[in-house]
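ARCHIVE CARD
Drawer: 12
Card no.: 0347
Subject: one protein chain, sequence and derived structure
Cross-reference: see card 0346
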Amino acid sequence: MKSPIAVQSSAVGRNAIVVIAVVAAGAALYWLRDILTPLAMAIFLMIMIDGVKRSIEQRTSLPDHWAGVAAVLLVVVGFFAAIAFIVNGAAGFFTDMSGISSGIGPRIDAIIEDGAHLVGMEAAPTAQELLAGIDLRGYLTSLAFQMQGVASGSFFVLVYLGFLLASQVGFRRKIVAMFPQREQRAEALGVFERVRGGVEGYLWVQTVTGVMICAAAWILMRVVGLEHAEFWTFIIFVVGFIPVLGGAVAGLAPPLFALVQFPTYWPALILLVGLQTILFVVGNMVQPRMQGDNQNIDPVAVLLALALWGKMWGVVGMFLSTPLAVLAMAILAEFKGTMWIAVLLSGDGKPYAAASEEVSHRPPARRPARVKPPRTGAAEP
């Protein structure tokens, strides 16, 4: 009989403490979600402000102070504009939809009947019969409350952002106090730079590819004649930050509404094929070329992060799931005890391989030899 594997008691105790700590941290994140979600959004807005500030400094001659002011104004105004566009666009969209809602039922019944004839069914069910067992009103009410919570939470996001920006003044002094030795302080700042670079890289790639998708989608929807093309374009851009679900909403929602708007199926078919082609080209050809080592995340880890943060923080958690996964991988890769978790989260098993290889292959710096002055018989003054 094979003897069991002997495990040291210290290792068992340490692993048990880690498991308990992870469960306790998850429970705290769930219970404190109303407080932590605005703080998380404010932190990512601050990271965006810092990236915009450095971009302004590189491209203009503005001093550091005015570049920071311009970055704050750009990000805050953009944040308010996004909230206003969502509220006004949704109000106008649902107002128009309520005006034509009387014709939606017969149109859906006609679509179901045509689909039933294609598969050989003689008696097709109506939309009312299909939706009889689904609490559609409950789902819509829950979605409305979540959107209302996101809109009302924007005020607390700005409050947190203001305090975070104010606390940046004493950040360097805190770093010096926490890491008095210069080598430790330089290593801590390096970890911070890599974490910030990973999050900024993700936000930059998603923003640029989202603008490409939205530009092509807007042109396609305007050519087809879909109503509220600008509203759908903005929705496509926003949901693009949600992995997996964002692509499904962007590629399927406009064609579904085109089925209701137009009396024929051709506009919906054109939108479906066109949007799926745009998403495929950008997602498989453009986006991989823009992604660097900072985006080296396993797809399974992306799905798990989406499910986990969506369960704990709702819609906000879905938006922040991939940046939080990037953040976790960047932090875990810096410590020897948690390096294996970062390896599992990475796509190729080498989190930040380029940076580490660059450091490992860099020749050690040589100190310049001290040149001794020639000895003379006379004493130096």
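Annotation on reverse: The chain has 14 helices and no strands. Residues 2 and 8 are 19 Å apart (CA to CA).
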